[in-house]
């Protein structure tokens, strides 16, 4: 999900380090600049930056971006971009390792770098690689003596179990009594009051129950103003909101949360379950259960407020097994990362194995399970931050998995994250100002996916739908959407995008039909590339044959041979990029 660009939080699952192709000038070391050392006990000559990161005493700590560790900078200016472009350690004594999504991190000589595949933390330093971790790639060996300090993984990141018990206030409803709800993850960024009203009203019209307001900043005026506008808009328009703390930035501690939450949980629009304010996270599994209890939950409980806590702790070293044994204070669990297929070089469908595991654990513990839903991921922000995660038919496949598994809650990722491309709603100019995001997001409207999301929400919340055939259009006419990339996979720039091998040159569609007897025709460059007999409910496919030129469209034809609905792309497909942007964003068009 997301590294800082302008004021909106966007994803930071980064691609492999490209230091091998950087010029000698780019790789020239700057004293005190580079990735931090990962150790729970900082060695002599260093300072603690918090959360198991250490920088040289003469450097300045810069907060982490998603998927990364703390950057050490020689001045107060943020040097993170320079470190991402030319990965090195802030001290030549440390060894540079390449871990999750190719992000760099540093260890003392003699320790081994390890990481969790797809994890949001670049890596940890260990004496031996623990179960569930992969060995990181050694990029350069440090000049220092073998380690004498304690690896970060031996304390804060692996010693998670606690003897603390769950708060003693009423535990509230179990999974069997929680009303089904569908939320949309919302990236809090700079905005106006009118924009807040538009987002609230648009999301309510789609059928969402609440926005999960992702924030990593609980002090800056831009963030507090945006939250004020959103809560005002929700109060006035009958919509709900709750806070999802982005812990991956390492800018918030559990003890800071209670006083912040007290500003919002009494608002009419704050989402509650049986009177308990709902709270979620992105990451935070590097923090022990006991610290969540003492810092976050107990201070609120002492004031008569028992938060309903459903975090996404995919960065926890033991994830996803035995979750509630290690985090008994949680009321539920959210499986963020399972919204997409695993990154890689081969085409694969999205898996619900982790979802099934966590759903079983939650039901056994009488807790709730929240399941993620998303379309795809695409980000193009420069070396180390360019990647793609499958989007051909990921969205309708997740519809089917959710209906089959019947989770207690669903969260769509996202309403407005233009940086990662999986937005289904609005994003506004000031939220991406000063960043390259507009180069690949502006002009690519994704609201066509809403035609699918609204009927899915109705089917899921009915409690009776178990398959795609039960996702029906709202009336007698077909609804659905068409989507395709406007650049072929064979474009010379595509190889700069991590996981580009998983992409396919296809025209993709999902159509909801009121009955059998329809035919769905798919065209590229005005040539028929597929014709499929439709059936009642959800029909979808990724049809090979995407061609250079215009004329990408689908038609829904009734039994009499008449075209009753169609969707036509507005953008041509190119063989090569005409500029510096290798744009794998999707053109999305709803049926009309």
Automatic annotation (TrEMBL):
Residues 160-174 have a biased composition (Polar residues). Residues 138-174 are annotated as: Disordered. Residues 1-19 form the signal peptide. Gene3D superfamilies: Glycosidases. GO terms for molecular function: glucan endo-1,3-alpha-glucosidase activity. CDD domains: GH71. InterPro entries: Glyco_hydro_71. It comes from the Eukaryota. Residues 145-159 have a biased composition (Low complexity). The keyword Signal applies. The keyword Signal applies. Keywords: Signal. This is GH71 alpha-1,3-glucanase.
